[in-house]
Amino acid sequence: MTPGAAKGGPIPLLTVRVREEFDVVAARQRARQIAATMGFPNHDQVRIATAVSELARSAHRHGGGRVEFALSAAAHPQSLNIAVAYDAMAAGERSPDEGIASSGRLMDSFAVETNGKSSLVRMSRNLPNDANRYDTFAAAALARRLAQDRLPDVKETEIQDRELLETLEALRQRELELANRQQETRRLNAELEQTNQGVVALYAELDEKAAALRVADELKGQFLRHVSHEFRTPLNSILALTQLLLRRADGDLNSEQARQVGYIRKAAQDLTEIVNDLLDLARVEAGKTEVHRARIQLARLLRTVRGMMRPLASSEAVTLTVEEPPEDFSFESDEAKIAQILRNLVSNALKFTERGEVRVSSRISGAFLTIAVTDTGIGIAAEDQERIFQEFAQVSNPIQGRVKGSGLGLPLSRKLAVLLGGELGVSSKPGQGATFTLQLPLTVDQGETAANAVGTEPDCILIIDDEETARYIARQLFRGTRRRLIEASGGIEGAERARFEHPALILLDLAMPDRSGFDVLDDLRADPATSGIPVLIHTSRTLNRADLDRLANRHAGMLPKGGPCPVETVEFIRNLLGEPNLLADEIQPNRAVNPA
Fold this sequence. Notes:
By secondary structure, the chain is an alpha/beta fold. It has 4 domains: 11-153, 2-Layer Sandwich (Heat Shock Protein 90); 180-289, Orthogonal Bundle (Helix Hairpins); 294-446, 2-Layer Sandwich (Heat Shock Protein 90), CATH 3.30.565; 458-588, Rossmann fold, CATH 3.40.50.2300. The protein has 15 helices and 19 strands. The chain has helices spanning 21-37, 42-61, 136-148, 156-246, 255-285, 298-309, 335-351, 398-402, 409-419, 450-453, 468-477, 491-501, 517-526, 545-551, 567-577, and strands spanning 11-18, 65-72, 79-86, 109-114, 119-126, 294-297, 318-322, 330-333, 356-365, 368-375, 423-428, 434-441, 460-464, 484-488, 505-508, 535-537, 557-558, 565-566, 587-588. Strand 18 (565-566), helix 15 and strand 19 form a beta-alpha-beta unit. Residues 1-6, 444-456 and 589-596 have low confidence and may be disordered.
């Protein structure tokens, strides 16, 4: 009985003795016959026959053996099991053949058992899903039929030749397919090369046009500067002469003549404003405008703007309100250019507000000063909110017919804001007024933050963690603090909030998808506005030496997730925040912490 033919094991089907060269051929034929009978497709039949042939030939070279075929009927899926037993091995050999293992790649399982005197090679191939299932009786019937069947009266060489022809035909088809793919690849490469040539030509054309535009822009700037200078002399003469006439220096004027001279003077003044705006715009675009920085008292600046702009509120239905900032707040910038921006914004707001209020307010957001001019006027549609910052652009509106403008004030104001390191934006809806926002960076002396500049203490704790559960747990840790708890769900957002909020303390997770805690720590320490903020590493990971080297003692301590807080960390937090009873229930005594 074949090994493994015990109850529940493989059911023997056929055994082929291998003594002569012909027996190798017979083993191959039997393997092909059994595989075909059990429903294996043609390519699997070839694989099984080839593997059996190689092992039978190896057994013949080593003095003989036997090939045993069996069916594993109880297994799922069922499989054809083949065992090749070697009668003997030459002295000193450890395995039948070094190359026999290659037969294992043709089968689903393959194993070699060697005891030093003989060897047994076991291999199997699972039956196809669509093949008939065999029970014990069907397997026994198959074994009887195989024992009675004679080998097909066909030379094995003919079978191998036919298989070789089929293989060669398959190779030829693959070669044809490969040739077609290579031809298609060459065609695509040719098209890609033509496209690349077109792109290169397009870039060259764009470069030429960009150079031409730069030249045209420079010529435009030179023209505006020249024309503006040339206009200013006659305009100043007109203003001076009309002033003499209105003073009656050379004789009296009747009322009609005085009105006409007043019209002339008003037109000259309007034209002078346009010329001045053109000249300023040309200077900014040419990079010839200098920024003269000095210490500015914000309250005095806004009072000056209010005094200059209040006469422009010609209608009693419109009120100009300027909110008073703290008297002791000051910052460093170019006062003349900020005043010019605010005059343009307030002047426009008064022009396009028929009733209601124009309000000027200011606030400090982190390292920026924000000045807002809000009106209750006609508003601006979303599609026009960028167009109004283009030179000479004006929005069509019934009020526009009564209110004249050059379309240069807002473009010039935005360029001046950029020149000062800030930005100018607008938010508005038609019929609901508009808010123009000027944001300027603050220059902080001796490492003070913008919040300290107005005498306030950092009033918040920032939690930077991408996991909502971790942020909730951190909030619970600090539930007794008098400071605000603010959160950031990622590293990029966290670094930005730190710059704008300037918290008293930061809890920083290390593993975040958009930017790791190590990188956020680098950003915080590189920025003067955030370099002095204490950072606690809030993580669940155990830090190795490489992690500690990367932190480089730039953090204030460790605050582990999911466990009590080390005593050293609790004492540090209490002393930093001035809250001696904070984290009373979270202390973990006698625990060493990672070096901070």
